[in-house]
Amino acid sequence: MDKKVFTPEESVKIKALVSLLLHEAKDVANPEDYRTVKKAINNAVKANIPAVDRHSINQVIHSLETAIALCQMVSPDRNMIIATMIYGLCVVDFIKIEEVKRLWGDDTAHLVSGLLKVSTLYGKQGVVKTDNFRRLLMTFAEDIRVIIIMIVDRLTLMRTINHHPDEKFVTDTAFEANYLYAPLAHRLGLYKIKSELEDMSLKYTARETYTKIARELNETKVARDAYIADFIAPLKEKLDATGLDFEIKGRTKSIYSIWNKLRKQQVEMSGIYDLFAIRIILDVPLDREKSDCWNVYSIVADMYTPNPARMKDWLSIPKSNGYESLHTTVKGPENKWVEVQIRTKRMDLVAEKGLAAHWKYKGIKSEGDLDVWMNNIRDILETADGPMELMKNFKMDLYDKEVFVFTPKGDLYRLPLGATVLDFAFNIHSKLGCTCVGGKVNGRNRKLNYKLHSGDTVEISTAPGQIPKQDWLNFVVTSKARNKIRQTLNERVNRAAELGKELLHRRCKNRKIELEEAPLMRTIKKMGYKTVTDFYNAISEEAIDVNDVITQYELVENADKKEETEKRSAEEFELQNNSERNADSSDDILIIGDNIKGINYRLSKCCNPIFGDDVFGFVSAEGAIKIHRNDCPNAQHIRYKYPYRVIRTRWSGKVGNQFAATLKIIGNDDIGIITNISSIINKEKDVALRNISIESKDGIFSGFLVVGVNDTSALNNIIKKIKTVKGVKDVQRSN
User: Fold this and answer.
1) What's the whole-model pTM score?
2) Scanning 24, 243, 523, 589, which has its CA 20 to 30 A from the CA of 339?
3) Euclidean distance between the first and final Cα of the chain, in Å?
4) What are the two backbone dihedrals, phi and then psi, of residue 52, each rounded to the nearest 5 degrees?
5) What are the distances in angstroms from CA 398 to CA 138, 190, 416, 720?
6) How deeply is 86 buried, as exposed, middle or buried, from its count of CB atoms within 10 A (0-12, 13-18, 19+)?
């Protein structure tokens, strides 16, 4: 059909659409923009430019509907709207890019150029299923706004082609929408568009399935609405009592999402427990967003039993595309599971319209350009007006630093610039990388370190006996390859070290020699090894003989014994003199504290004694006296093996410095519990929080606090107060 003019019905529709567009775009466009676009379209009609394309889609109506959808679902800038309106005229070469620049500016021309570039890729079905095709498309697009326009353009087309006579065209369009544009919309945070594209794709490719689900949803709508009302009513009453400004509503899952669950879980509709969700939207200031959302969560959890396995916290760490919300699934009336989503109006706006500013592709973990780019985008989001207007300054040139290569089967892979044959092998599979010996690039044999270029076809060559080498780390560029090589090398070294250790201990056991750690460490150092792993690895590789090691160990041990015997006499003489000098002290008691001069002593790190602890002194091999608690884990061993080096010890009457004490703490992983503990410690006058290390698993947290205290009395007092914090199960002093 080669249609040149509009029918009366189309003219009426165009007039209505123009009126709606003027209303929707009034904040970003101006009347002059409308007049210039209208003039261009009228000139095209006069020049007999076809009003419809080869699929009988009226392009003027399509452009108007796309521009309106942009305004309603994305909040575009002025140039995006104009580019959307005139793009169709540029495709047929009726308007040149130079003319676009003259009439609407460089930025609009830039957007139109991007749309024209993308149109050269559209319809190439060979790689449309691969995730990297989307990235290749992004490279051509150069501007994220071009991708947004293309997504909304596909949405408008999908709305138009219901019952279109060309079934293949409908099926192909639905296929591309599902495999390309819906995932792109998801990555950009355009969830409403994504859901609608998926639903319509299912409708056009499996109409019977779609209709069946839609009919069942409609048949159960009354009962579902009644259940939602019963669930919401008491919750609304509780929330009203808080004084919060909020909106609460229920929504049914998309038909495509339900179909996905039916397919994966192999159940009937009645077997899906989360057909709908309750959404609570708060109208609160920015600085209260998180706290108020958690407050609402606590109210919901008090009323209905939550399922901890279904808790999703995207408040603390938003999704990569900027989505923020708190999701929990609770057991409602009739023991039915209900998903509750808690967010603010700002978060809901991002979730509904995306704003494109929180965009980040899954799987790309750039340490440089991407993170800087994302931080800039987030900074833009914080400005109150016109984030889309400012977005144009951030081109997506970060993908220029990548190469796209193919497997012999035609699969497309994205790699960073400078990637080698070995990087490609690891990118496909770790095992393939570990056994890689080279590859064929475009049919020619290449070494492991050959750098790939965009468009190369690569076939990996492997050998069963190949293992990762240390020098591989000198030329790989991907983190996946580097991490796997290091992991394999370390595992190999550790396995060899374990064999060496086992060999040494077995040989010592045969010769009835009991290895002690201190002389063994001195032996290792004496033999020139920096680490224990290197030492045991050398034994495993037979770089040193086990018998030589044992001989060296015995020499060191004998020297230690001789030194201890000599020091024992000197220490006993020193203790006798100290006893005579301290007339006020009896039974050779060592007195320690701030005012004690001339005694070389240190507090032992194995038990960290503090003022007030019952302690004893131990004369070390270095000559210094180490102070241990009487209940030190090493006390029994020291007293049994070295009784002649133990000294009775007590504190002086006054000690001014604070001591470090470690507390082991266990409790429920409740919101704010760590803050409450920290607050109690900070309120104590002579107690300081020096370090905190906490781990959480299955709703229980455990860890260690290091506090500075003056004495045991202060320590016992702070332990008692921490135990009063709600959720804390146990607090004990740790060595």
Assistant:
1) 0.47
2) 243
3) 87
4) -125, 155
5) 10, 22, 10, 56
6) buried
